[in-house]
Structure formats: structure tokens, C-alpha cells
């Protein structure tokens, strides 16, 4: 079993584009970076990919998406992905670090909730005017990244923010929120951050409620209103997502994986995995190889 590679933006970036940003056409990217793409890997940066030609399949954290013209993917650091594409596949791609965005915006990249592992919204299929406008923004980003014009980074950030805002609006249109969801969304976003920071060491709903200075009952009410899941379900799903990643891509043995995820009792971890995933740990591992 091969340890999954975690790719750094410096493995892709062009010298003229700076240390925190990379942009390219998809066709050229596939030629220059093909060795990074066919095997599952992770990034330590944010990625946006727009397909304008071709078909294929894109695998992201145990979900498979059919690729076609208009497919837009936004990915956050840590997501495991790979793809198989037709020979004519083309489009646009850009990467950036968290610092590249957060340095210029007070709210930061975390304000885009679709990047959260708990939301798992990473794909939209665009057409018509939305596709034309998004493609034009990618074209302008690519043109700017290759030059040294005044306030280049500021213009790139403006364009990519428009892409992110458009993605967020389209995702919201597909899953409209009610008044309760809207009023609770800020607190849920806070909960997401705590889960991402502590899921390896803390599995208790009461502990997260304590971090947020509220009762476990109220936190459960917030989570049910926003995404229809209990606090315990959300925490467990995040733990099991990481468990799946490690079972496929880590060289650690099963007991080491369980321990790293905060389970001192491997037997309990194994039973939880089978109950939630539907197959045992070893069976999942063998099926995924």
C-alpha cells in the first residue's frame, strides 16, 4: 500500500506567478503534471477546476462525479482525489494557498462554507450564461497570472472571489435554506471549525457544546436545522471519512489508525466502522485496493 502523496503548490507553480498561486489550462496541466494526477493524492492548497471539453470521472473522498463540459470542482486542502479523463479534456485550473486569500480578506477563505468537509459540496455543473461568465473569469485569471501588471494579485483575488461567490449562490439555489437554517448558520460554521480541529481527540457532543458555551441539546438543534444531522452523526462522519482515507492511503496498521483517530480500543473502532459504513474495516480496505 502506498502512502498517499500530499502535493505542495511549489510542485506546480510557475516562477512568474509567485509562491502562493498557480493557474494553467487544463490541457497543459495534464501534460506537465500528469504524474501527479492518476493516483489518489491530496493538496495542501485550494483548487478550482473548470472543464470546457471532454468527459471522464473525478473521484473525491469516496464520491465519484461524471465529468463533462461545464463541470466545476472546488476542492479544499486535505481532500483525496484522482481522475480518469478522455484525451480531449480541456478547461482551466487554478490553485492557491490559504494565506494568498486570507491576507487580503478579513473574513478569509473559511467564510465559504462549501469548502468544509462537513458540507461536502465540491461540484456544480454550469451551462448557459453562468458557464460563459465563469469561463471568462478563468481566462482572465490565467492571463493575469502570467504577467506582472499593477495590482495583479488583487485582480486575481477579485476574479476568484466572484467564482467562489457564484458557486456558493448556485449551491444555495439548489439547496435553499429556511429561516431557522439562516439564523443558525453562523453557529454551525463555528461548530465545523471545532470539529475539524478536534475530531481526532474529541468525539463527545457535550464537549463541543462546552466549547461553544451552549447546551448539547441546543447544539443538536442547530445541527439538525442546518444540515438535518445530529451532532454525534456529524462528528462520527468526519472521523470515519479520515478513517477511510487512512485505510486506503496509509502504511499504518489497523490498530495504529484507530489509535491516531483517538480510539484506544481497536475493537470499538472496528464495530463502529462496520455499523456506520456497512462493511468491516478489512473488507473496506480490500475492496478499495
UniProtKB/TrEMBL annotation:
Keywords annotated in UniProt: DNA-binding, Transcription, Transcription regulation
Residues of the HTH araC/xylS-type domain: 189-287
PROSITE patterns xref list: HTH_ARAC_FAMILY_2
Recorded GO MF terms: DNA-binding transcription factor activity; sequence-specific DNA binding
Top-level lineage group: Bacteria
InterPro entries with a match to the protein in the record: AraC-bd (IPR003313), Homeodomain-like_sf (IPR009057), HTH-like (IPR037923), HTH_AraC (IPR018060), RmlC-like_jellyroll (IPR014710)
Pfam families, per database record: AraC_binding (PF02311), HTH_18 (PF12833)
Name this protein carries in UniProt: AraC family transcriptional regulator
Record organism: Flavobacterium magnum
Source organism phylogeny: Bacteria, Pseudomonadati, Bacteroidota, Flavobacteriia, Flavobacteriales
Amino acid at each position: 500500500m502506498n502512502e498517499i502523496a500530499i502535493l505542495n503548490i511549489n510542485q506546480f507553480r510557475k516562477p512568474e506567478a509567485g509562491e502562493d498561486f498557480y493557474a494553467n489550462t487544463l490541457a497543459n496541466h495534464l501534460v506537465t503534471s500528469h504524474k501527479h494526477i492518476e493516483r489518489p493524492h491530496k493538496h495542501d492548497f485550494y483548487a478550482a477546476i473548470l472543464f470546457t471539453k471532454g468527459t471522464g470521472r473525478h473521484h473525491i473522498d469516496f464520491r465519484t462525479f461524471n465529468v463533462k463540459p461545464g463541470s466545476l470542482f472546488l476542492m479544499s486542502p486535505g481532500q483525496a482525489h484522482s481522475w480518469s479523463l478522455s484525451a480531449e479534456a480541456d478547461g482551466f485550473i487554478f490553485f492557491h494557498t490559504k494565506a494568498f486569500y486570507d491576507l487580503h480578506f478579513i473574513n478569509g477563505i473559511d467564510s465559504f462554507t462549501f469548502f468544509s468537509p462537513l458540507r461536502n459540496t465540491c461540484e456544480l455543473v454550469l451551462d448557459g450564461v453562468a458557464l460563459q461568465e465563469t469561463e471568462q473569469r478563468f481566462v482572465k485569471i490565467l492571463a493575469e497570472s502570467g504577467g506582472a501588471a499593477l495590482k495583479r494579485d488583487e485582480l486575481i483575488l477579485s476574479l476568484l472571489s466572484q467564482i467562489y461567490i457564484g458557486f456558493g449562490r448556485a449551491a444555495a439555489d439548489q439547496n435553499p435554506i429556511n429561516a431557522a437554517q439562516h439564523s443558525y448558520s453562523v453557529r454551525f460554521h463555528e461548530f465545523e471549525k471545532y470539529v475539524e480541529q478536534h475530531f481526532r481527540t474529541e468525539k463527545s457532543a457535550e464537549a463541543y457544546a462546552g466549547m461553544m458555551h451552549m447546551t448539547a441539546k441546543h447544539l443538536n438543534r442547530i445541527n439538525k436545522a442546518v444540515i438535518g444531522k445530529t451532532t454525534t452523526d456529524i462528528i462520527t462522519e468526519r472521523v470515519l471519512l479520515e478513517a477511510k482515507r487512512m485505510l486506503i492511503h496509509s502504511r499504518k496498521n489497523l490498530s495504529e489508525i484507530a489509535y491516531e483517530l483517538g480510539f484506544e480500543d481497536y475493537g470499538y473502532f472496528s464495530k463502529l466502522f462496520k455499523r456506520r459504513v456497512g462493511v468491516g474495516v478489512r473488507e473496506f480496505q480490500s475492496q478499495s485496493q
